[in-house]
Design brief:
The protein is of the alpha/beta class. The protein is 24% helix and 24% strand. The two termini are 14 Å apart. The model has no long low-confidence stretch (mean pLDDT 95).
Length: 270
């Protein structure tokens, strides 16, 4: 199975890049399944129902969220009816929506998608991500009822993302980090066969401070004072993400590659 995961969409520039490029990438690369983290897609804070609909119509199979899951209040109700949206499994026991779901690709192969929030350096004390994921993978085995499994690890600390990757090695097809908006260069297949990347980066304008127009973040760092709200940068966006090919029999990764498509960080396609 050929799976593409794209990192956090930031604002209108990121949305535009995904809407314009994903349909062509699906065809050119023969993609079977596309997952995109959309939690900063609406003005840099959360994801609205209308923007979710646009992305799903453009050829995205699943949207994951994060710690800003419900910054756009209509998502509280929208994610209850739109089953292609996944919020963190350990967000809160009373949170609407779902943190894990099994999808089917166009050939009927089953792929599990789950998302989890980290605990280190995060603003809230979320439930233990390791026990939450352990429960999922104790009942959903690769090579059995599912042919692939993708986990979006939404964390601040690289060490916590790496620990979760090794914790799931051999149990998930791919583990990919999100949240920091800065792509890492450590795409690899772990010893037991799981494709891993510490952070997929963002789908946004990299002439920015993690996707935001530079002026206000620089002012706050230099002076310690705020003058206005952060606004997403609106230059040409780079699609950043993780491409993984899996073995249908075992569900494990056979090929992995970091993706940077268009914009300032463009590199060659897989």
């Amino acid at each position: 199975m050929k799976i593409l995961f794209l990192g956090d969409i930031v604002g209108s520039a990121g949305r535009k890049a995904v809407l314009e490029r994903v349909p062509a990438l699906r065809e050119a690369w023969g993609l079977d399944f596309v997952v995109v983290n959309g939690e900063n897609a609406t003005n840099g804070m959360g994801l609205s129902g209308d923007h979710a609909k646009e992305l799903l119509t453009a050829g995205v199979d699943c949207l994951t969220l994060g710690d800003h899951s419900f910054d756009q209040k209509d998502m509280m109700q929208f994610c209850e009816t739109e089953t292609r949206i996944i919020r963190p499994i350990n967000f809160a026991k009373t949170a609407p929506g779902r943190g894990v779901r099994i999808f089917e690709d166009r050939r009927g192969r089953r792929i599990l998608v789950a998302q989890v929030l980290g605990q280190v350096f995060m603003k809230r004390a979320y439930d233990d991500p390791f026990s939450a994921l352990d429960q999922v993978f104790m009942t959903h085995k690769l090579g059995g009822a599912i042919q692939a499994a993708l986990v979006d690890v939404h964390c601040e600390a690289t060490s916590e993302k790496m620990a979760i990757g090794h914790f799931l090695d051999g149990r998930a097809s791919m583990v990919v980090g999100t949240h920091t908006h800065v792509c890492t260069g450590d795409a690899q297949i772990l010893p037991a066969g799981t494709g891993y990347l510490t952070d997929a980066g963002m789908c946004g304008d990299y002439n920015s401070v993690i996707g935001m127009d530079k002026a206000e973040p620089l002012r706050r760092f230099v002076t310690g004072m705020a003058k206005g709200r952060f606004q997403p940068a609106k230059g040409e966006a780079t699609l950043s993400g993780f491409y993984v090919e899996t073995d249908d029999r075992t569900g494990l990764a056979t090929r992995v590659r970091q993706i940077r498509e268009g914009g300032r960080l463009e590199q060659s396609v897989p």
